[in-house]
Design goal:
mainly alpha
Length: 355
Amino acid sequence: MSAAEVRTQAALARIDEVLDLSRNKLSQVPEKKLTSGERWMRYLGFPLGVLVFLLLYYMPAPEGLTGGGQVVIAVFAAALVWWITEPVPTHVTSLMLMAMLVFFNGWAESDVLGVLGFSVIWLNVLAFILSSMLVKTNLAKRIALALIVRFGRKASWILAAFFALNLMLAAFIPATAARAAMLLPVMIVVAGIYGASNANPTNFGRNLFLQNLQAINFGSSAYMTGSNANLIAVAFILSMGGSRIYYTDWLFAAFPVVVTAMLISWWIGPRFVFKVPPEQQTPEVEGGLERMREKLHEMGEVSADEKKAALIFGLVIVLWVTDKLHLRVLGFEISAVMAAFIGAVVALFPRLGLL
């Protein structure tokens, strides 16, 4: 085997290694074996909790008990049943409890969410829960591979594909470090396919990593949920200035600016900052893109879990971008935090969810 073939085989093996996102787990907890009684408790616990809630919610209220107080009693009674029988994990019950208190007018949303100071902190936490579906279902891997396979034959196209990928992920993942960690393995693979490495740095590799860092930060500015700083800023504007910033307010103001900045960076970088010569405009490792195409093919058709994750994300995004229409169309308002609560509860719910 020639030296070139050895290098090619090593590069292909490296592609297989870095694309195995399933190995990156913080912990693996063995599932507890349930007794017959515990299984029956789980089967009957959820409908029993719903029944308890409805009975207390619709019962004639004693004198002196307000409507909000009756809701609180009904919700906490249902939660107590669910915590004892555990038809769903206790943390999911807690999230459901908070959402029910708001939707049934037991407590004001600000009171329910105020335990962390600002309600938008909950939005940050819930966005992390939602974003974990991308990795768990391999939806992020499929999207990344599809973009690279589709646009990977030319340097300018693959750079543009990473800008688009970052812009999409920023809508769901509110942490720049998390997006960088998610895309780093894919960037390493693409850099290797184009012949860039620590031992052989190239201008394509410099543009790839520099523009991805720029795209991560640009994408953070495109959406209200794009970064923690955005959420804190929205909270301060509301608490100190008295003005509420809707999701669509931020989107319409920032998204066009972000797209323009991305286009400028994409055009200037490989032409003036780190000029990419003709020999770096196409893949260097023979079979690199074909291996990634094989990886995409091995994933098969889009799975039910991937479709479910896309549906949950789609529901949350629709609720976010239509926030100003809720009161007029639905008769009540679903805030960005409550929309994320809905998505997180569905994602965490046993059998129905994904996490």
